[in-house]
Amino acid sequence: MHDTSPIIVWIRRDLRLSDHAALHAASATGRPVIPVFIRDALVDGLGAAPKWRLGLGVDHFAKSLAAKGSRLILRSGPAVDVLTALVRDTGAAGVYWMRAYDPGSVDRDTKVKAALKDLGVEAQSFAGNLLFEPWSVQTKQGGFYKVYTPFWRAARTHDVPAPLPAPKTLPAPQSWPQGEALEDWHLGRQMRRGAAVVLPYVQLGEQAAQGRLGAFVASKVADYADQRNLPGVDGTSCLSENLSLGEISPAQCWHAGRRAMEEGKQGAETFLKELAWREFAYHLMWHSPHILTSNWREEWQAFPWNEDERLAEVKAWKQARTGIRFVDAGLREMYVTGRMHNRVRMIVGSYLTKHLLCHWKIGQAWFEECLIDWDPAANAMGWQWVAGSGPDASPYFRVFNPVTQREKFDPDRAYVDRWIAEGRKSPSAEALSYFDAIPQRWGMSAANPYPDPVVAVDEGRKRALSAYENKGF
Ligand SMILES: Cc1cc2nc3c(=O)[nH]c(=O)nc-3n(C[C@H](O)[C@H](O)[C@H](O)COP(=O)(O)OP(=O)(O)OC[C@H]3O[C@@H](n4cnc5c(N)ncnc54)[C@H](O)[C@@H]3O)c2cc1C
Q: Which interval of the chain is the signal sequence (predicted)?
């Protein structure tokens, strides 16, 4: 193979130059590098907001590559077809990529690897989208962890390699293969009215992500342990948006957290533990992929969840008009910003699965539609945790009371007042922007009175507890 045969770097949800082992290794070969992004069935299957956010991220990353004298070639179709055709067209010596761990990607990547090997081309995948490879953290018996705390105890003894710098050069090939235009993919098509409303909340790309991490470590991490549960306070890193598309690597976050810990900043260890929750989600998804699609605990299979999306309660929940302010505030925050505070994710999830006795899959799918930080593993684990059907889940009989939770975690009502417009003399701009984002056919207006609860807090709790009786949980 000639030295000028290029290396193709297949870019997926790893839209960064630094701490990108595949780009780094490709650059180190001294060969020309051809970065490629493929719009395949997994991209087409994304929900509206994550697909739109991916499009913004890809566009931004293409510009970062252009600033280095490189390019991002865009192609669509099944990855195996696109890559084998590209290898033939360019005479590439190898294809490198960063590993993904969801079953759809694993299946696809296994086929790609086999096809490339058949062509006699080097096919290499690299670690770096997680801190610890999911198979590397094992129980003493060689199994996987089903409970977070022992997982954390085992994981924290593992080394996390120092992040790699961005490659110095990404030599261009003599001629670039043809690519498609991102505009023609219409990745934002389903966002309709929402895009203009969500856009100001987006922090796009690697530099912005590094800025977020820097600001968090400089001014928020010290109080993080106390403040991270208060949705009215800007007390968390907000890095999930960037982590979900790999605009920052978990190792970069981890090492920044470690340094903060060494500097004696309280809260830094809690931050590391939260990063480890992300790892735990991937650990669980890798070892028990059914967490994405069915009750992780077998005993929940017979539970009679409501699964009908047409139910009035489900519509009210999705449209953030359940009549429970803390719940509606969270769902509105998500619709307007593409994100939702972790505490409130638990409250809205509990209300859907317990007060309304609806299947967690309805919530999982709605979050997948609306979140710009959507992550398959964290979303599935979060929903199964809330519902009680997952490993290390919230006990089934723990029904969050959204009223007392609001009193405890939003005592001055800063959060609910920010997101609920109805009944207020001068609603906040954020609360009003919800009505600009939602479809007009929902028929909602800030001028309407705030709705009565679809299911009252006590009544829903009692109903849930009686539904759980004699189910053998
Ligand atoms: C029902 C439900 C659904 C969820 N869906 C998602 C999702 O689609 N995408 C997503 O990234 N997170 C999800 N989470 C986890 C959590 O809510 C978010 O990661 C967190 O709110 C992100 O905000 P932050 O970046 O400011 O977090 P920080 O508090 O600053 O934490 C730092 C990082 O740690 C990780 N992290 C923190 N908490 C968790 C957690 N409970 N589980 C897994 N990782 C965590 C995230 O990567 C986060 O960016 C979900 C939680 C629940 C209860």
A: none
CA distance 91 to 70: 18
- Six-digit token string for 224: 């993080």
* 239 CA closest ligand 1 atom index: 25
Other C-beta atoms closer than 10 Å to the C-beta of 352 total 28
The helix or strand, by DSSP H or E, that contains position 408, with its residue range, turns out to be: helix 402-409
pLDDT digits (tens, 9 = 90+) for 97-114: 999 999 999 999 999 999
Which residue segments constitute the domains of the chain, with CATH numbers given? 1-128 (3.40.50.620), 130-162+193-287 (1.25.40.80), 298-468 (1.10.579.10)
Q: In this structure, what token pair is assigned to residue 49?
A: 């907001």
Atom index in ligand 1 nearest the CA of residue 346 equals 53
- 76, 180 in Cβ contact below 8 A? yes
List Cα–Cα distances, 297 to 146, 151, 290, in angstroms. 11, 19, 10
Q: Helix, strand or coil for residue 147?
A: coil
Residue pLDDT, tens place only, 346-405: 999 999 999 999 999 999 999 999 999 999 999 999 999 999 999 987 788 889 999 999
- For residue 152, count other CB atoms closer than 10 A to its CB: 17
Ligand 1, residues at Cβ distance < 6 Å: 228, 236-240, 243-244, 274-275, 277-278, 281, 342, 345-346, 349, 367, 371, 373-375, 378-379, 382-383, 386
In angstroms, the CA 263 to CA 259 distance is: 6
Q: Is 8 exposed, middle or buried (0-12, 13-18, 19+ CB in 10 A)?
A: buried
Q: How far is the CA of 382 from the centre of ligand 1 (A)?
A: 8
* Nearest atom, ligand 1, residue 341 CA: 21
Q: How far is the CA of 385 from the centre of ligand 1 (A)?
A: 13
Ligand 1 mean position to 419 CA, how many Å?
Answer: 20
323: left (phi over 0), alpha (psi -120 to 50) or beta: left
Q: How far is the CA of 27 from the centre of ligand 1 (A)?
A: 33
Which residues are within 8 A (CB) of 256 and not within 5 positions of it... i.e. 6 or more apart?
213, 214, 217
Edge-to-edge strand ranges of the sheet holding 33-39: 73-76, 33-39, 7-11, 94-98, 122-126
Helix (H) or strand (E) holding 54: helix 48-67
Question: Which residue's C-alpha comes closest to atom 24 of ligand 1?
Answer: 238
ipTM of the complex as predicted: 0.99
Q: In degrees rounded to 5, what are phi and psi of residue 356? A: -100, -5
Q: How many residues does the chain have?
A: 473
The alpha carbon of 125 and the centre of ligand 1 are apart by a number of angstroms equal to: 26
Terminal alpha carbon distance of the chain: 61
